[in-house]
Amino acid sequence: MVFPVVFLKLADWVLYQLLANSCYRAARKVRNYGFFLRNQTPRSSSQQQAASLFPSASHCDVGNNIRSSQTLVCDILGVLLRAKTFFPYFMLLAFEAGGILRAFLLLLSCSFLWVLDYELKLRVMIFISFCGLRKKDIESVGRAVLPKFYLENLNLQAYEVWSKTSSRVVFTSIPRVMVEGFLKEYMAVDDVVGTELHTVGNRFTGLLSSSGLLVKHKALKAYFGDKKPDVGLGSSSLHDHHFISLCKEAYVVHKEDGRNNQSCLMPRDKYPKPLIFHDGRLAFLPTPFATLCMFLWLPFGIVLAIFRILVGICLPYRLAIFWGSLSGVQLTFQGCFPSSNSEQKKGVLYVCTHRTLLDPVFLSTALCKPLTAVTYSLSKMSEIIAPIKTVRLTRDRKQDGETMKKLLSEGDLVVCPEGTTCREPYLLRFSSLFAELADEIVPVAMSAHVSMFYGTTASGLKWLDPIFFLMNPRPSYHVQILGKVPPEFTCAGGRSSFEVANYIQRKLADALGFECTTFTRRDKYLMLAGNEGIVRENKIN
């Protein structure tokens, strides 16, 4: 009898919150909207008066290091980020950590979220996004997925003020676990005070902790006591006005500035820290409309991906290019076809940049000739559907060298010396093993573009990588062959294998407009997945 009683009480609370309270709030919104239409000019002027209580953030003096010893407080939503709603970030969390069904449920909630006030709306999104998920999965998304979208949405005006202060504290009603990793890793924040969530064991319940939803001005008083922070940044809402009024100086980041002013857009070269690695499948910011479009596309995308795979496996190269282009795959080729030396018994060694697992496939298609590819980690499924011969390496330098020499004696070989993929315009450190094996080396600059799904992952199922890439409406690949490496820049010409590897890395980076780094495969997987990125033999990963 205990469960029915608890269930009835829960149902009674839900009905009260969602029907009684929400309908009352909806009626007030409709009434206020009608009043707004009848009194548009007076209401607009009152809003302008409220917004003019504090100067704009663009008027904050940041010159001559006058703020080098000051403390700044602000929120992330509407201040550091130009976004006016946190829904896309909850959707990223739901999709990447909880799966497609949870993301679909969150999308369905949009049908009634608009009638809820801010607090209840936030509670609903938190419950759907977090309920039942493990702490480590949420922390992984916060570390590897969300920073990319936060950086792309940073407000440059707010960041210029932020960067000139020595101490920064963020107060936000958003769950702390969603923003703390980004703020500490990329924004050098001193502390983050946010909404705490209830957990049972190592899983979230989707409910708030006993402290409830964070109220910023109360949290600021509790954090600083009688001391006032030097600078406060807030949005144009009245709640933020109360929050920043507790600071010695207060400035407002207006919504109009964040959305329409090009000076507020953060260019990549001004990111507080370079974005080199990130994870997750979604390549777009999942606003409600964009997410709806994705779900409508999914059935067509799956069928289209299967069709494209069959085209690549079953048809000759010319027909595969023709039918692939008809299905939306864009393949562009630049450079000349390399000619093999008839005096050499070895094949040509193609050294490629690594964007997805399909790099060797698209190179083989562009050249209209069969190639053999070697890779460090390849799932059984990827081996099955690959239209070219693939050979897995063991990470034993001597054994891998012998394997590659044997393959070169049989024909042309493709190698990606970075050892793993990188989505951003950077090249990882090249392994020098390939330079010791061949004198005929042809660098190939590969670049790929997607609009909906990324075809790579560090923590997900790798056998789905080619499928996700081919599910994009118009995936594109650009193949640029740079020509053979001059003999004087090879090991036969007196260069060390490291010099050859660094030379080819620089040539490929210049061709693509990328930047060279010293990061390795191990660095990437430790940052994104907490492991060294090794696919176990007894698992399909």
From TrEMBL:
Keywords: Acyltransferase, Lipid biosynthesis, Lipid metabolism, Membrane, Phospholipid biosynthesis, Phospholipid metabolism, Signal, Transferase, Transmembrane, Transmembrane helix. GO terms for molecular function: glycerol-3-phosphate 2-O-acyltransferase activity; phosphatase activity. Residues 1-20 form the signal peptide. GO terms for biological process: cutin biosynthetic process; phospholipid biosynthetic process. This is Phospholipid/glycerol acyltransferase domain-containing protein. GO terms for cellular component: membrane. The keyword Transferase applies. Residues 348-449 form the Phospholipid/glycerol acyltransferase domain. It is found in: Membrane. Its main location: membrane. The chain crosses the membrane at residues 89-116, 289-311. It is a multi-pass membrane protein. Belongs to the GPAT/DAPAT family.
